[in-house]
Specification:
Shape: rod-shaped
Number of domains: 2
Largest sheet: 4 strands, mixed
Helix content: 40-55%
Distance between the termini: 147 Å
């Protein structure tokens, strides 16, 4: 049995231990509570939510500040994650909904207007109002090609042909040294015939031929003397005018054929000779295709028929018509040979061979 002092000492120790245990329990409880609280979410905390989209609106006008309906508006983002398209309404307005927050770009275009590009940044839930967009008129580039018409080219070529004179004075208008010469209009065909008919050298040639006819007493029915020479001169000049206008203007205009001789200048002698001889019965059409020379043939026969009106009665008849036509067709063939091989060398002021039409 313990003594009284020992019992008091043991009792004091027991109470002291009980106090320590009692004092430490709340602290341990609170530590466990704190630990459990840190490991679980608090009742008042909210989970994070995605940002809400915004919208973009605006108005498009032209340079006169008039509203511009029907303009195409395209919205894109730098990362190409969003592309939206719309057109402006009758009030020139447009609107995009559900636009993700962040930077964006608008491209606005319309017919006859230059394209405009506008950039901006929309915040979450924001309605972004784009400043008024003005589309300028598109710059129109007009290309004008200045050139001559086919008729104008032909006129320039005819002017060059009218300068062609053998030995510098004998007219040589019905020869083209331009292979691809522009076709003549009827007006130009008649103009060339008229210029040939009234050329002083034509009158001089007719006068010489009439003198030869009188000296050989050809067409006796005209007689001699000044009166006989005048009749021969008139008849010969009438032949020239009839043949020139009918064979080089009237029928070529009606049949759309070119009355000119087109100088070949290349190839073998034989090919050039055959080409020159065939000119009496072959010609270029106004379509630049080779075809029978009906104009020359019909023109010569028509001129021969008309000659019966003014030749002496003793020389008239069908024979005169065929004789005159045959002679002139033969003359055309011989003239072609001279043109191909001789006359070009005697003719100054020739145009360059590379002149062409548009």
């Amino acid at each position: 049995m313990l003594s009284r002092p020992k019992r008091l000492l043991w009792r004091s120790f027991a109470w002291l231990s009980l106090g320590v245990v009692a004092a430490g329990f709340p602290v341990l409880a609170r530590a466990q509570q704190v630990s459990s609280t840190q490991g679980a979410p608090s009742a008042g905390a909210q989970p994070s939510r995605p940002q809400s989209p915004g919208s973009v609106t605006g108005t498009v006008i032209d340079q006169t500040e008039a509203l511009l309906p029907g303009a195409l508006v395209v919205l894109t983002r730098p990362d190409d994650s969003t592309r939206q398209e719309t057109e402006t309404d009758r009030n020139g307005q447009f609107s995009f909904a559900n636009v993700p927050s962040g930077p964006f770009q608008l491209s606005i275009s319309a017919a006859n207007f230059a394209t405009e590009v506008v950039s901006g940044t929309v915040s979450p839930g924001q309605t972004y109002v784009v400043p008024e967009i003005t589309l300028p008129l598109a710059t129109q580039v007009t290309r004008v090609t200045v050139g001559l018409t086919q008729e104008e080219v032909a006129e320039e070529q005819v002017k060059l042909e009218e300068k062609q004179r053998v030995l510098g004075f004998i007219p040589n208008f019905y020869v083209s040294y331009v292979p691809d010469a522009a076709p003549l209009t009827p007006k130009q065909k008649f103009g060339l015939a008229w210029k040939t008919s009234i050329d002083p050298v034509t009158f001089l040639g007719v006068g010489v031929l009439a003198g030869v006819q009188q000296a050989t007493n050809q067409f006796k029915g005209y007689g001699q003397g000044a009166q006989g020479y005048a009749k021969r001169f008139g008849a010969t000049y009438a032949d020239v005018v009839d043949g020139t206008f009918l064979g080089s203007a009237v029928f070529p205009s009606l049949l759309k054929q070119d009355p000119r001789y087109f100088y070949k200048g290349t190839g073998s002698f034989r090919s050039r000779l055959l080409y020159a001889l065939s000119n009496a019965v072959m010609c270029k059409g106004d379509n630049k295709q080779w075809q029978p020379n009906y104009s020359n043939i019909l023109g010569n026969f028509a001129a021969g028929g008309i000659a019966n009106l003014y030749y002496p009665a003793s020389n008239r008849g069908v024979g005169l018509t065929f004789e005159t036509a045959g002679i002139r067709i033969g003359e055309t063939a011989v003239a072609g040979v001279f043109q191909e091989f001789i006359i070009r060398k005697l003719t100054p002021n020739l145009p360059p061979r590379n002149v062409s039409q548009p």
